[in-house]
């Protein structure tokens, strides 16, 4: 057995394979089967990795990875299995405990077809040590990546995989994780975007939601992410969301609940209601007892939870008041009692007049008023001391047209008294935007009658592609930003609607120039639809040992961009010999491979600078704003001794300006 260094023939085989595999050449299939055992914490065990149903043409070359959990296991050694004809010449392995994998490579180094694998059996044995603090239960060992299996003519084979593992007995007991904190639920057209806190020891998260508070009929396992957009929702329906964290021990309690109501960008008919009013006509009384008859005169059902009725009057004192609903019912076309869903709230007017200083708002906790249906609500309210009201000057007294009805905050019936209109708040003033490392701090003035604020921003002036509801705060830090210019506005909102945008301010987040980590850095450019633009891909803080080989992918949005060309950068010593690239538009990536073909350590990458340039064309009709270009996958970066480097990545992109 030997390591990967000094294997020019093997490298050539792999390059030939990559070129053939990209053309979709396939042959018969086989199975990689990972064994299973039982062990205790501290034990060393052998896991066989076997090949089954090997095609009769034999295996000329193959490469794959076995993945494991390094919080439970440590890979100690690898030995060759009995089906490999020449173990010391054609078999290669590499253990990477930090990366949680063992990689394997087999290739008939003579390339004469004389030393292929034909027989089913054990290809390799991996010795694992079970860590002393390993948790009880099954830890899986999987085939985490399959590169290529090919015959002598380099026809590739389809490969199935069977996972194995180690069942640990008597290990550490894993605790159920704590509940996460659900930070925000931002509604859009047909969807809601959620964001929550990360929880220690969580393996993943589950979003739960439904249309009734505290009742969650839908569940989505979003794996190990802390934000998610729930799509396919019904506009105008309020959804209630919680998040749970989970690990092998179970699921946490629910997070706090947040609600959001998706709304269409298109204007909608919220409904039509007609109101009739009856009440005692005595002007001096200790009990005001309006009865409201609501008729849905529109063509669509109305959710009564969206309906508010307001009765305006003078309190004639300052006492506490009490409300009762004596009877509430949908009376036609069929009878249905809804008394328990009727709620009443007293509100003192911010500015009083001779005929109004209070209003009673009646709402509903549920039920639906179908098109053509009628509901009757019998109510009464009194002061704590049962003293009299003088109704003679009350705005709504015995006058149905002076009782207002709102649906989703919009007035659909009645006259609003002076001072009783809920106005859309004024636009706030955005005072400052201060750029930080990957973030921007915003500060704005408070607006009277605002219930909350929304930050809107994007990478093109006056084109805001992102929104964050920050509730009632007047300062906020927008994070996870790139090193490009962003444009910000703030709007205030209340139940009457949203204000106009504030003034616009811009800021450019800083790069982390103090970072000393080895990084793949993608640049940012600005272009218009139809333009071609070159995006450099740089390597920064290249380790002093140099890069002997590396492979990674750069991802892009094919709905916005088309890759035109790839060229080598100036830090590659021998571009024509050691640099390879492959454009895959359908799967939206460009893959790169660099390897010193001589494998003598003479042609490594030592300098920071441009590794490659990708020329993109911005498609006609591309939307304005930033389209991100990311490092979508990193294989391995290694020095001459095949020590693997950790790699950071910096996202770039193209700001499309129409």
TrEMBL record:
SUPFAM superfamilies: Carbohydrate-binding domain (SSF49384), Fibronectin type III (SSF49265). InterPro entries: CBM2/CBM3_carb-bd_dom_sf, CBM3, CBM3_sf, Cohesin_dom, E3_ligase_FN3/SPRY, FN3_dom, FN3_sf, Ig-like_fold. One of its GO terms (molecular function) is cellulose binding. The keyword Signal applies. The keyword Signal applies. It comes from the Bacteria. Residues 1-27 form the signal peptide. GO terms for biological process: polysaccharide catabolic process. Keywords: Signal. Residues 268-418 form the CBM3 domain. Residues 176-265, 424-512 form the Fibronectin type-III domain. This is Uncharacterized protein. It comes from Iocasia fonsfrigidae.
